[in-house]
């Protein structure tokens, strides 16, 4: 049985009370914290980096799921690992040598993920299916929270699950962008098991939002 995991994206959190909000997601059952790093180059916006991750590490026992939207992320792998990342996901489009980048992540004792933007063919993941622990299918163009879910992501998730199953590989498939209570069941059915949500968790009552997500996630295990 594959475990379904909720990864609230702190991009939508209120940073003046971040510690409190992390606790709320943890107590309500969210297993991961999704940490979006943007460099103003691979994506237009700039978010936060190592010092914030180190503070988050000290404030929660949740798994720190770091999504690097950064050009040539291999340059920063060691630093993010040292600041407490448990999973480091890099973009296939951002790496000159993806294999080497994944090896660098593993060398730090951290799980490695590969992400693709909505316009990148899923088939480009094939050479890395054995080499990564997680595959992140973006369901929005990376760069900003609060964008609408792109339904084409569903087929892409199913295709990755199929490619993995054909090879007998049990890996996590994460989906990120525009996920709410109203559409999470579809992405679970398509084969994703790690669910990122920013607006869907942090807008409104955080505990209630997480609890409702967890209820749906359990029903699909
Ligand atoms: C977008 C980020 C997402 C973002 C999701 O580039 O990778 O993690 O925070 O936010 P929502 O859930 O609001 O679409
Ligand atoms: Zn993300």
Detailed description of the structure:
By secondary structure, the chain is of the alpha/beta class. The protein is built from 8 helices and 8 strands. Strands 1-8-7-6-5-4-3-2 form an 8-stranded parallel β-sheet. α5 (152-166) links the parallel β6 and β7. The longest helix is centred in the C-terminal third of the chain and has 15 residues, at 152-166. The structure holds D-xylitol-5-phosphate and zinc ion (ZN). Residues 9, 11-12, 34, 36, 67, 140, 142-147, 176-179, 196-200 line the site of D-xylitol-5-phosphate.
Mean pLDDT: 98
Give the DSSP E fraction (strand runs of 2 or more residues): 15-25%
The quaternary structure here is single chain
Query: What class would the helix/strand composition place it in?
Result: alpha/beta
Give the termini separation: 7 Å
Which regions have little confidence, pLDDT < 50, spanning 5+ residues? none
Heteromolecules bound: D-xylitol-5-phosphate, zinc ion
- Main sheet specs: 8 strands, parallel
Task: Count the E strands.
Answer: 8
Query: Topology as H/E string?
Result: EHEHEHEHEEHEHEHH
Number of helices: 8
- Placed side by side, the strands forming the largest sheet appear as 1-8-7-6-5-4-3-2
Q: Which shape, going by the Cα principal axes?
A: globular
Helix content estimate = 25-40%
* Rg, Cα atoms, Å: 16 Å
